TrEMBL record:
Domain of life: Bacteria
Annotated protein name in UniProt: Capsular biosynthesis protein
Regions annotated as coiled coil: none
Gene Ontology biological process terms, A to Z: monoatomic ion transport
Keywords recorded for this protein, A-Z: Cell outer membrane, Ion transport, Lipoprotein, Membrane, Palmitate, Polysaccharide transport, Porin, Signal, Sugar transport, Transmembrane, Transmembrane beta strand, Transport
Domain annotation Polysaccharide export protein N-terminal: ranges: 72-155
Length: 360
């Protein structure tokens, strides 16, 4: 009699196995009904229309015209620069000690912006171009010399620089010279990012303003980053990607937390990095992206779902951009839930059956 009651009870539980099966699972209806502390949830399918609307909302900000509209002029001399000054046919000026010609050395611009030269003592150099200083020297020396011909070159550049900080491989100052330095060339000199950089989070500080730039858009045909040139005093800070995390959970081969340092990180990339769907356990019709709202008072949390029963659905996954803190969840198939329920139930059933046998 006891055995009969046990069998009936076991059969009744098995009939409800899908309802009480262990582990997490979700349907679009589940998400739509989720109203609690997080507020209402918007449920959207991942289709061509959703992808198009989604991409238009999260495109990177355009590069401000104030940046790509700046074009460097001629280099202007500053304190600390080393100048090479030559007066032709006057060896005594170029080599007043009758030793190594001064043309082989340099005249350092002093902190007050002046340089020393015979006959004229000091002359203002800071803020002038090479041509302007050459003309000033020639005009000043013509009071003492006839047929004066002067040549001026900057031999050591030191007064103008830009500073790199953050996740660059070679952070620190870079000196500017008479060749205009573009943003892209400067980033290349700094060695790019050290592996932890957020390429979509480059901050350019200039004249009291901060501009957020996305280096990752450089390969786009409409990118204007190539037209940005740096100027003295610019600061470039490359943030890290620690905040750029997505969580891939559920029936994938390698559940994990992923960080990314680019402006776009797609659902397909996330699934691929996680080793793809677990073929024996995953429900390809239950791929979800769970996105919390930044401001719950203005925007509800959103759950996107993808039916990838057909492989062509991964074309949509390749176009769907994830955001920081997104949770990608792949649900289990019905048979997986059933098997897990049975695997947990059978040990308990064995214990009950053993106890029943001993009781007899």
């Amino acid at each position: 009699m006891k055995r009969t009651v046990f069998v009936v009870a076991l059969f009744a539980v098995l009939l409800q196995g899908c309802v009480f099966s262990p582990g997490q699972h979700m349907t679009p209806e589940d998400a739509a009904d989720e109203i609690g502390e997080t507020g209402p949830v918007t449920v959207l399918p991942i289709n061509a229309q959703t992808v198009a609307q989604h991409q238009s909302l999260y495109r990177p900000e355009p590069v401000p015209a104030a940046l790509y509209g700046y074009k460097p002029g001629d280099y202007r001399i500053g304190a600390g620069d080393g100048l090479q000054i030559t007066v032709w046919d006057h060896v005594e000026l170029n080599s007043p000690t009758n030793q190594e010609p001064r043309a082989q050395g340099t005249q350092i611009v002093r902190n007050d912006g002046t340089v020393y030269y015979p006959f004229i003592n000091s002359i203002q150099a800071e803020g002038k171009t090479v041509s302007e200083l050459r003309n000033d020297l020639q005009r000043a020396l013509s009071r003492y010399l006839t047929d004066t011909q002067v040549d001026v070159n900057v031999q050591n550049y030191a007064s103008q620089r830009v500073v790199f900080s953050g996740s660059f491989k070679n952070a620190g100052p870079q000196v500017l010279n008479n060749v205009p330095l573009s943003l892209i060339e400067a980033v290349s000199r700094a060695g790019g990012d050290d592996g932890s950089g957020n390429l979509a989070g480059l901050i350019l500080k200039r004249d009291g303003h901060e501009y957020l730039l996305d280096i990752d858009t450089l390969n786009r045909k409409d990118s204007k980053l190539n037209g940005i040139y740096l100027k003295n005093g610019d600061q470039l800070h490359l943030g890290n990607n620690r905040a750029n995390k997505v969580y891939v959970l559920g029936e994938v081969n390698s559940p994990q937390v992923m960080t990314y340092g680019t402006s776009t990180f797609t659902l397909l990339e996330a699934l691929g990095n996680a080793g793809g769907l677990a073929q024996e356990t995953a429900n390809a019709e239950a791929i979800y992206v769970i996105r919390g709202a930044q401001d719950r008072s203005k925007q509800p949390a959103t759950v996107f779902y993808l039916n990838a029963k057909k492989p062509t659905a991964f074309l949509l996954a390749r176009q769907f951009d994830l955001q920081a803190s997104d949770v990608v969840f792949v649900g289990p198939s019905d048979i997986t839930r059933w098997n897990r329920f049975i695997s947990q139930l059978l040990p308990s059933a064995t214990v009950v059956a053993t106890g029943n046998a001993l009781g007899q």
